[in-house]
Amino acid sequence: MFGDPVGSDRLLTTGEAAKALSVDRSTLAHWMREGLVTPTSVTAGGHARWNLDDLRRQVLALAQQRREPPQSES
């Protein structure tokens, strides 16, 4: 668990979360701007922080809503 960048308790930056989902950072940022996904928190400086398990649930729900298969997790 030490050094695990995607540990369930750790909040990830948008770049880290995007990498964990195998999508570009700009894609995740776009989804957030469009209200398709919601970060766990936003810092005082306006930076999103993500719980990876929660984000994966949101992306799965979005994919199901659109009737598209979710991207595989690598």
Characterization of this structure:
The structure is a single chain. The protein is mainly α and 74 residues long. Helix content is 42%, strand content 5%. It is built from three helices and two strands, in the order H-H-E-E-H. A two-stranded antiparallel ribbon has the order 1-2. A hairpin with a 5-residue loop joins strand 1 and strand 2. Helix 1 crosses helix 2 (25-33). The longest helix is centred in the last third of the chain and has 14 residues, at 52-65. The radius of gyration is 12 Å and the shape is globular. The two termini are 19 Å apart. The model has no long low-confidence stretch (mean pLDDT 87).
Write the layout of secondary structure elements.
Layout: H1 14-21, H2 25-33, E1 41-42, E2 48-49, H3 52-65
Helix pairs in contact: 1-2
Secondary structural class: mainly alpha
**Percent of residues in beta strands:** 5-15%
| Secondary-structure element series | HHEEH
Calculate Rg over CA atoms: 12 Å
Q: Please, what is the average pLDDT?
A: 87
Number of strand elements? 2
In short:
The protein is mainly alpha-helical and 74 residues long. The protein has 3 helices and 2 strands; from the N terminus they run ααββα. The mean pLDDT is 87.
Feature tags:
74 residues; mainly alpha; two-stranded antiparallel ribbon; 42% helix
